[in-house]
Amino acid sequence: MKLYVCHGTFSSPRPGGHPCRNAYQALEEAGYDPEVIKSYGLGILPDVFNRTKGRKAVKELTGSNMVPVLVTDDGEAISDSKNIVEWAKAHPAGAGAGATA
To answer: Of 16, 40, 62, 69, which has the fewest CB atoms closer than 10 Å, so is most exposed?
Structure first.
């Protein structure tokens, strides 16, 4: 399981919290220990400014430069922190197929 994030999983004063941290915390709370891949860059900028290995991988997986993106052990790519949080709640670790850390 891989979690592509911007610069990290740090807290932020941003209303609602930092999306990458929210996704990471939801996965941890569900019993996962994802490999965190720092993708750097800024997703809203054109591709020419998002040339890091992580951003290129995210673009290939989702067609977008935006993170966070979760890649499950089954190869499913889930983008947007809200979707990742929902996935983590619905798939706690050890609860069945595709739910291994």
So the answer is: 16
